[in-house]
Design brief:
The longest helix has about 40 residues, at about 20-60. By secondary structure, the protein is α+β, with helices and mostly antiparallel strands. A four-stranded antiparallel sheet has the order 1-2-3-4, with no helix packed on it. The protein is about 35% helix and about 20% strand. The chain has helices spanning about 20-60, 75-80, 85-90; strands at about 105-110, 115-120, 125-130, 135-145. The N and C termini lie far apart (about 105 Å).
Length: about 150
């Protein structure tokens, strides 16, 4: 009787022989294990990086003034009439920022610990750069609009 056949004369398919040597299989397993270890180390590294950045941001946040919720019984009008009384309710120091007389604030932008206040005035627009935690005006930038455009 031939290999792969039974008594009835039918042929059965046999499993193909393994084309890889035991040494090749060993190295394939070693490579898969090594790449898996590298991926896990990378994931752990990213996680540790996130934690370190979050801790650094948290320690820098402590340098800025803390703002607590003001009591509901006080209104903005009460604070404007007595600016010193707002310190107890809000929990921060209030700072005066000097703008030209008659100026109106057009917009405010915050970047890091710098506050840019864009104001409009009859003599021209300007931008006041303020140190956010300290309240000191670092500089005033004047924006001048030309009355005539070159080429007209």
């Amino acid at each position: 009787m031939a290999a792969g056949s039974d008594d009835s004369g039918e042929r059965h398919a046999t499993a193909p022989a393994n084309p890889y040597t035991p040494r090749q299989i060993f190295w394939l397993k070693a490579l898969v294990f090594g790449m898996s270890a590298l991926m896990l180390l990378g994931i752990v590294g990213v996680f540790v990086g996130f934690v370190m950045v979050a801790q650094e941001a948290g320690s820098q946040q402590g340098a800025s003034p803390k703002i607590e919720r003001a009591s509901a019984s006080r209104s903005l009008a009460d604070t404007e009439s007595d600016p010193g009384s707002a310190k107890a309710d809000v929990g921060v120091d209030l700072h005066d920022i000097e703008l030209p007389a008659g100026a109106t604030i057009a917009s405010i932008a915050l970047a890091g610990n710098r506050l840019a206040i864009h104001y409009r005035h009859e003599s021209g627009d300007g931008i006041a750069i303020v140190d956010w935690p300290g309240g000191q005006v670092l500089s005033h930038l004047r924006i001048r609009h030309p009355t005539s455009v070159v080429g007209e």
